[in-house]
């Protein structure tokens, strides 16, 4: 091997002062590094970020990953690790996970999330388990979990929600309303009796004065 005096020639089978490595030792990967207008060859044990090692009978090379925002890849079209801020999903990198998948922050990967069904119709408006006797109540709708998430740490979307509603019947038949009517009649009767009593006293007093 011709290493030469230049440290850039380390690991080379052949090397030039201006262009660096031209051929590498067996097992090492040839990487063509570019710095401005200059480029030179290096022989590396592993390829740098954004490249993967391609082994061929002629010479092992570092080839660029074809996936955008990929930090390391298994092949040109399959990423194994994304750049900071991107999530890995099926060999590609995304800012956010696709629908039906959840972000696993510790690994920066998209995994199967919790899948829920369609919302049901809104239920009957009620309050304290009664459908009458109040002006306002609550109605609820629900949905079922169709598929549980791959990881227990991934929460499912809410499967029940409620909203304020107006009662169809404010007064219950045979309930509060008849009781109030009875009280009113009794009160009216008491007033009539009191008025008659006062009138009798007035008449009696008036006769005495005559």
From TrEMBL:
Gene Ontology terms: biological process: Wnt signaling pathway
- Domain R-spondin Fu-CRD, by residue range, is 9-110
Keywords, alphabetical: Developmental protein, Disulfide bond, Glycoprotein, Heparin-binding, Secreted, Sensory transduction, Signal, Wnt signaling pathway
InterPro entries assigned: Furin_repeat, Growth_fac_rcpt_cys_sf, R-spondin, Rspo_Fu-CRD_dom, TSP1_rpt, TSP1_rpt_sf
* Principal subcellular localisation of the protein: secreted
Q: Where is the composition biased (Basic residues)?
A: 172-189
One GO cellular component term of this record is: extracellular region
Q: Which family does it belong to?
A: Belongs to the R-spondin family.
What's the protein called, per UniProt? Answer: R-spondin-2
Annotated organism of origin: Catharus fuscescens (Veery)
The top of its lineage is: Eukaryota, Metazoa, Chordata, Craniata, Vertebrata
From the UniProt record, report the name of the gene that encodes this protein.
Rspo2
């Amino acid at each position: 091997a011709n290493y030469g005096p230049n440290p850039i020639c380390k690991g080379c089978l052949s090397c030039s002062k201006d262009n660096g490595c031209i051929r590498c030792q067996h097992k090492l990967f040839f990487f063509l590094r570019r710095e401005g207008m200059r480029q030179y060859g290096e022989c590396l044990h592993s390829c740098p970020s954004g490249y993967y090692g391609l082994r061929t009978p002629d010479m092992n090379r570092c080839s660029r990953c074809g996936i955008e925002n990929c930090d390391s890849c298994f092949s040109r079209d399959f990423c194994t690790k994304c750049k900071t801020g991107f999530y890995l999903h099926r060999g590609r990198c995304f800012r956010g996970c696709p629908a039906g998948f959840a972000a696993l922050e510790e690994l920066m990967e998209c995994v199967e999330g919790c899948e829920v069904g369609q919302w049901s119709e809104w239920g009957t408006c009620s309050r304290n388990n009664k459908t009458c006797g109040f002006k306002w109540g609550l109605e609820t709708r629900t949905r079922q979990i169709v598929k549980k998430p791959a990881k227990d740490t991934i929460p499912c979307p809410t499967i029940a929600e409620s909203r304020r509603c107006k009662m169809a019947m404010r007064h219950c038949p045979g309930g509060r309303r008849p009781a109030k009517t009875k009280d009113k009649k009794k009160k009216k009767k008491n007033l009539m009796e009191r008025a008659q009593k006062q009138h009798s006293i007035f008449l009696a007093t008036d006769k005495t004065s005559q």
